């Protein structure tokens, strides 16, 4: 480890340790191109957003498909669990953010969110979503309120 000072800033260089993961179980499933994944915080579920316009929820403990939703004719680039409300939020290339109840498959809301592709959704809380548009470095903060 070395330490050097440049002006008012101090920089510390440390030797990085390689990341070691102990993989206990693998989930292998044939699918179309996966654009994003999200893990449910309480259930053993993996949410995948697919290029085909679908999203799929897999149970990684039983290695089975729980549900599949047809979202759009365009690729779904991002999907996130909002577990407090039992929702899934999706952002797709048709510029629309859609919210579904993952138990009933009911569409809760949808709205045009951006004038370009939605590439990433970050669920800040169950009432706020932040959509990031990386192509133009724009950030669009959206408040989702159920009427």
Helix and strand topology:
Layout: E1 2-6, E2 9-13, E3 34-39, E4 45-50, E5 54-59, E6 64-70, E7 76-82, E8 87-92, E9 96-101, E10 107-112, E11 120-123, E12 128-133, E13 138-143
Antiparallel strand pairs: 1-2, 3-4, 4-5, 5-6, 7-8, 8-9, 9-10, 11-12, 12-13
What does this structure look like?
It is a single chain. The protein has about 150 residues and is mainly β. It has no helices and 13 strands. The protein has strands at about 1-5, 10-15, 35-40, 45-50, 55-60, 65-70, 75-80, 85-90, 95-100, 105-110, 120-125, 130-135, 140-145. It has a four-stranded antiparallel beta sheet, with no helix packed on it. A four-stranded antiparallel beta sheet has the order 7-8-9-10, with no helix packed on it. A three-stranded antiparallel beta sheet has the order 11-12-13, with no helix packed on it. A hairpin with a 4-residue loop joins β5 and β6 (about 65-70).
Radius of gyration: 19 Å
The SSE string, one letter per element, is: EEEEEEEEEEEEE
Helical segment count: 0
Count of extended strands: 13
Strand order of the largest sheet: 3-4-5-6
> How far apart lie the N and C ends?
57 Å
Largest sheet: 4 strands, antiparallel
Contiguous low-pLDDT stretches (5 residues minimum) are 1-8, 125-129, 132-147
- Report the mean per-residue pLDDT as an integer: 75
The fraction of residues assigned to DSSP E strands is over 45%
Shape: globular
SS-derived structural category? mainly beta
The helicity comes to under 10%
